[in-house]
Amino acid sequence: MKHFFLLFSILFTTFLTAQEAYKFTTVTNLEATPVISQGVTGTCWSFSSISFLESEIIRLTGKKIDLSEMYQVRNTYPIKAENFIMRQGKAQFSEGGLAHDVMNSVERNGLVPEEAFSGLFAGETTYNHAEMAAVLEAMLKTYVDNPGRKLSKKWRTAIEGVLDAYIGKNVTNFTFEGKQYTPQTFLAMTKIQPEDYVNITSFTQAPFYSKFILNIPDNWSNGSFYNVPLDEMMATIDNALEKGFSVELDCDVSEKTFSSKDGVAVIPENAENNIKALQVIYPEKKITQGYRQEEFENFDTTDDHLMHITGLLRDQNGTKYYKVKNSWGTDETRVANGGYVYFSEAYMRLKAISITVHKDALLKNTANKLNL
């Protein structure tokens, strides 16, 4: 009996040890601007991409600049509206978008600092686009229905008027650190060149090392992505971080195993551990290319949210995690890790829809195969 209790004690202790709370050690931590909140808006695509560009400016110039997210939002809505009307309503019109929408806007409209265009009016401290989005959608549907039997040329002016009222009039000249700029001269000062950034994904509906339009709802602008094997996409992220390049991320955050409040995102091997695994370590599922594709095609992996990868960590068992900057603020009652979420390698392999990186962050072999 004594031996039985001794054996039970050893087994119980082993079981408790296996389910240890997470203890993270930083491996790589690239410089990034502070976490901020996108408020009640669907503009994560701009907040994450602008955060990514802010880190790029630090890398390229050493300057820490708080860029305007809403300047890109303000200049993207008219393009979305044009797309919706010219396609007679048979297109996506929502608050969502992707990283290339920001890059396209930067190329067309330049960059401006937050102090020159905040997208907020006097007395406002947080963003809320719910009413504006509903007004714009109602207007566009009316234009598509064409009740006057001849679409008025005033619709563009009307859309601009709504955007002016809710986000603000576009800025063309401003002063920053004592110097006069236009959005284009400011872009030149930051050394950002939009054409240097590439979108990478990994799905089997298109040939690897080809470029194709990824058919997800928020790809309203029909942006193209380079397609590579899953292992190569993951190696690209690792290579970028190792070389000092942060990474823009489009991912699925709809899973119960993603928690900003707990600050982790994992894929437990046993679904019974999904909730418990947000606080203690459990073995994770092995994610293959085939399983990733299956989950994407049955809509268990969806295009939900864009974030910014800024580092690498390991837990006490040596498992790799990615340090991912979110845009849901820093309220400790709602988020952990100062607004960052630590993605396990398994979660990233399964739930990363795509990434955006500087072309110099690509592995040489990958760049050669993509002719970059």
Shape: globular
Continuous helix count: 11
CATH-scheme architecture: Alpha-Beta Complex
Q: What's the total number of strands?
A: 13
Tell me the series of helices and strands, N- to C-terminal. HEHHHHHEEHEEEHEEEHEEEHEH
Strand content: 15-25%
Structural class: alpha+beta
Contiguous uncertain segments of 5+ residues: 4-17
| CATH homologous superfamily designation | Cysteine proteinases
Integer tally of domains: 1
Distance between the termini: 70 Å
**Largest sheet descriptor:** 11 strands, mixed
CATH class: Alpha Beta
List the helices and strands and how they pair.
Layout: H1 2-18, E1 25-29, H2 44-61, H3 69-86, H4 99-109, H5 130-145, H6 155-166, E2 174-176, E3 179-181, H7 183-190, E4 197-201, E5 211-213, E6 224-227, H8 230-243, E7 247-251, E8 258-259, E9 264-265, H9 289-297, E10 305-314, E11 320-325, E12 340-344, H10 345-351, E13 352-358, H11 364-369
Parallel strand pairs: 4-6, 9-12
Antiparallel strand pairs: 1-10, 2-3, 4-13, 5-6, 7-10, 7-13, 8-9, 10-11, 11-12
Helix pairs in contact: 2-4, 3-4, 3-6, 5-6
Structure description:
The chain is built from 11 helices and 13 strands. It has 372 residues and is an alpha+beta fold. The protein has one domain: Cysteine proteinases (Cathepsin B, Chain A, Alpha-Beta Complex). Strands 1, 4, 5, 6, 7, 8, 9, 10, 11, 12 and 13 form an 11-stranded mixed beta sheet that branches. A two-stranded antiparallel sheet has the order 2-3. A hairpin with a 2-residue loop joins β2 (174-176) and β3. α2 crosses α4 (99-109) and α5 (130-145) packs antiparallel against α6 (155-166). Mean pLDDT is 94; it is low at 4-17.
